[in-house]
Amino acid sequence: MTDFRYLIVGGGMVADAAARGIRELDADGSIGILSEDVDRPYARPALSKKLWTDPDFSWDDKVDLHTEETGAQFVLGTTVTAIDRAAKTVTTADGATHGYERLLLATGGKPRGLPGLSPSERVLDYRSASDYRRLRELADAGAHVAVVGGGYIGQEITAGIVQNGARVTLVDPDEVVGGRMFPADLAQAFQQRFIDHGVELRTGRRVSEGTETADGVRLTLDDGSVIDADAVVAGLGIEPATQLAADAGLTVRDGIVVTSTLLTDDDSVFAAGDVAEYPDRILGTRRVEHVDNAQQQGRQAGRNLADADETYDHTPMFYSDVFDMGYEAVGQVSAKLRTVEDWQDPTVTGVVYYLDDDDTVRGVLLWNVWDKTDEARKVLAEANALTPDMLPGRITP
Ligand SMILES: Cc1cc2nc3c(=O)[nH]c(=O)nc-3n(C[C@H](O)[C@H](O)[C@H](O)COP(=O)(O)OP(=O)(O)OC[C@H]3O[C@@H](n4cnc5c(N)ncnc54)[C@H](O)[C@@H]3O)c2cc1C
């Protein structure tokens, strides 16, 4: 049994930020990081973006987060199976036990699977660096890859691999790629880029059944049509990995419930990142699956593990890059909401405001507009005092 002053379950982006946050206040306290992943923490967004689009983006310089600089001790390739809150220990699948004074749950989420298919060399749920390495082999071999899912990760992977030798079929439940997030004209322009790059689109369709064959994967769609591909990437989103916390008797709703200081209902146990449901200062209770949140909340959790007792008051942004397009956004970006569009150049450069039924701004999309997320946060913070006619011109590219 190894005891740590600070023990982190999960070795992703939160783990890195938290270890650094701890070190801002405590130079020596021992830090342990237990992770299912076989790699030390890395910048996950690179797996679907820069590693495909920027030949100078090296693993060692740009992707590996070098968390070892904090002096944290790693146990990789290990799954934590139980927490004993009374004894302040955790147990791993291989039977080892580790003690803690302060525990951080940073388990992120488990990717949703496709019906009939389990992860394999040809069925990738695309969350980890191992998945990236396998997809790189497939793209280099000019494989036919089916990407399934209508979210930004599926879109980015499609763009990444079609520009690197793969033939890609994108299966998207939305009628238009991007249709669940963007206003109609913008979604059409967005989708056109996929067509221009030779992506075969199967929009408005879901996978009913998948089968892995000797040399590939067969997908049957909900209209009865069939796609035979060398491999499939499932971009179906994640379920927050809350089971460990629930089994330990901690309160779990959409995620592990934490206070504004990121504490669970046990005053030795914190949670942060994709797995945590927290009270956002501007947007209210929510769980966020984005890197800005992982980094800022992770850092704050680390500081609070080391007794800072500070409120997490950062409202996170998110971003995506696809072909030559990119955006940053704050708050809710959903085509179910009403929009006010403010384009400098239609569907090329501009701002989209998302409003609820009471005409209150709930989200801001900055399309090819950079360094304006603080202004977007200000709009959201002042939303109750803003009417739709006051929005155009409020944020200028
Ligand atoms: C391909 C990809 C691209 C992305 N691109 C963007 C982007 O462009 N913009 C953006 O804002 N966000 C993006 N994200 C999301 C962002 O990376 C996540 O929000 C962030 O990584 C969350 O950090 P986390 O530490 O909470 O979870 P993760 O980074 O997922 O880490 C969780 C860790 O916990 C481990 N774990 C889970 N359960 C256990 C257990 N029981 N025992 C031990 N270890 C366990 C996992 O193996 C993993 O190492 C992307 C994600 C992916 C996968």
UniProtKB/TrEMBL annotation:
Gene3D superfamilies: 3.30.390.30, FAD/NAD(P)-binding domain (3.50.50.60). Residues 301-344 form the Mitochondrial apoptosis-inducing factor C-terminal domain. Residues 5-298 form the FAD/NAD(P)-binding domain. Keywords: Apoptosis, FAD, Flavoprotein, NAD, Oxidoreductase, Transit peptide. Coiled coil: none annotated. Its cofactor is FAD. It catalyses: A + NADH + H(+) = AH2 + NAD(+). This is NAD(P)/FAD-dependent oxidoreductase.
